[in-house]
Structures are given as C-alpha cells and as structure tokens.
C-alpha cells in the first residue's frame, strides 16, 4: 500500500471566489500565485504549496481531499488499483504528479507526489507557557493583540459516508492508515460507526488523527481542521473573526478524542472549518480506544457541540 505522509489539501466548489478569499484570509490563509477567476488556491505558513482549493461553480459542493505520498512508486501502486486514474501530470499550481481515485460514495481522493515545496512564510514563535510546575517563560511576556492567526497546515478532515466499513476497507487497501479511536452509538457497545485514522510512520510522531470516517445518512465533509501556533492564536483569532462580523459555530473548547483545543466556524457557503492547537501525537504503538458518548461529551471543557453535531 502507499505511504501517506501529509494531508495536502481539501477541494471545494463555490459560486463566489472573492467571498471565499475574504473569509479564508481572515481565517489565516494566504492566496497563492496561480489563482484566477475560476480557481482560488490558499496556503498556510508551511511547505505545502496550497492547502485549500475552491473552484468556481453555480452551487457549493465538497469535491474531496489530496494526500501526499512518500514516493513515485506509491503513485504507480495506486494507479494499478481498480477505479484509479493513470499517473498523470498535476494541473494545479506547484506541479508534480497525481493519481485520482474515488471512495465508494464518489468522494475524490487524490494522491500527489513531487509538488513544489515553497519556502515557509514567516510566523511568530509559539509563546512559552508557565504551568504550575514548569516555568518556561522567564524574563519574558505574552503580547498578543486581536488579529487573524496564521494557519500552519491542514491537520485532518472528517468524512461522512454511507457505509463506514466499506469506506474504511477502501482507504486501508490504498494507504498506510492505523486506527486511533472508535465511535460507538451513544450508550451502546457496538457497532463501530466512526473510526479515527492516523498515519503509520513507525516511531515518528504523528497526529492522533489524520482523518475521521463517520457512518451517516448523508455523504460529504463534516469539517477540515487547520493547526495554528498556540492557544493565544486560537483565542485572538476567535475575537478577530467576531470583530469582522463572522458567526462562530462551536468553540472554543477542548476535545476528548485527540485533546485538541478547537474553534469551529463556517465559511460563507456553510462548510465547517476548524482552528486547533495542542493535539495529541502518537507513534505506531498507540492502541485505539472506544467512545460511546454523545457529541456534547466529546468536549472536555468549553463550548459544547449540540447533539446533532455529527449527524
């Protein structure tokens, strides 16, 4: 199977690219050269050429996600699988090669390799945090005004699918994903209706989850999540987005599964998007657990999502 090494981008369609650009800029992304009246490419401060793509269309729609793989041979292996495109030149800015596939529900999953890696954009250093025991900030201060944060990277995305088990089997036949945790129906011991997946990079530390696959009565994306510098970035950006007239969705709070401090918003076309920081990292030895609570119980503290949050 192919070795996935990073979440490269999510791709949408929407009728107004200027409106999307305005929001994503306020959210902390930067427009990429190569954007035009038909397609908007936005990047973070990291080395992915772009992490959010919007194509102009009459109606809003989630297209899918792109996954960076480790080597050209990974593309060859994926191209040989049923339903895959041949290995082909990528048409988006940054170049490279790609293989296009579709999940059982028709969600586009694109494997990419060899895309240009731009220089990182300047960002402030994370603030050292003084807890009750460890005093890491000595002769220093925290000074963070209300301002848009800087997005570092696309950390994960969540898919709603019509058949959890079939989608999971499809993904695992193609990529090196490991299970991190499981969702069960509230108060029940089974069946598994959601699986948090992570990368398998051996002893290298990876995020607790790269993707969440959720059984649902509708198909699409629940949200895409972007990592920011630290807690002050989450909070100051929250105040900035409020100041700009945007309405928060759910947040700020701390998740149970993955432990991230989160802040959910919706873009102008109703797609949920998340700032997060301080998530769990694990290696290949991590063993999955099971969670059978309600959506509101997925939050340890802070603004709790409504019961229908994951429906």
From TrEMBL:
Organism: Arthrobacter hankyongi
Domain VOC: 153-278
InterPro entries: Glyas_Bleomycin-R_OHBP_Dase, Glyas_Fos-R_dOase_dom, VOC_core
Protein name: VOC family protein
Pfam families xref list: Glyoxalase
């Amino acid at each position: 199977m192919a070795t996935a090494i990073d979440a490269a981008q999510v791709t949408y369609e929407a009728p107004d690219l200027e409106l999307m650009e305005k929001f994503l800029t306020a959210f902390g992304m930067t427009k990429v050269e190569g954007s035009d009246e038909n397609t908007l490419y936005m990047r973070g401060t990291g080395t992915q050429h772009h992490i959010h793509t919007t194509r102009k269309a009459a109606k809003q729609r989630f297209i899918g996600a792109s996954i960076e793989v480790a080597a050209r041979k990974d593309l060859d292996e994926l191209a040989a699988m049923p339903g895959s495109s041949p290995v082909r030149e990528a048409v988006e800015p940054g170049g490279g090669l790609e293989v296009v596939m579709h999940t059982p529900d028709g969600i586009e999953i694109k494997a990419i390799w060899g895309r240009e890696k731009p220089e990182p954009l300047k960002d402030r250093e994370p603030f050292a945090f003084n807890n009750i025991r460890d005093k890491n900030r000595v002769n220093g201060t925290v000074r963070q005004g209300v301002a848009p944060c800087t997005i570092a990277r696309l950390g994960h995305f969540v898919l709603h699918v019509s058949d959890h088990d079939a989608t999971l089997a499809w993904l695992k036949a193609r990529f090196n994903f490991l299970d991190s945790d499981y969702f069960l129906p509230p108060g029940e011991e089974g069946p598994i209706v959601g699986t948090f997946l992570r990368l398998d990079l051996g002893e290298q530390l990876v995020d607790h989850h790269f993707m969440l696959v959720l059984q649902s009565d509708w198909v699409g994306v629940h949200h895409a999540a972007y990592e920011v510098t630290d807690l002050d970035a989450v909070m100051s950006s929250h105040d900035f987005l409020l100041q700009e007239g945007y309405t928060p969705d759910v947040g700020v709070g701390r998740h149970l599964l993955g432990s991230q401090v989160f802040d959910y918003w919706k873009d102008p076309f109703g797609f949920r998007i998340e700032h997060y920081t301080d998530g769990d990292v694990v290696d290949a030895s991590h063993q999955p657990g099971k969670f059978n609570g309600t959506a509101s119980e997925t939050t340890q503290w802070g603004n709790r999502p409504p019961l229908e949050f994951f429906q």
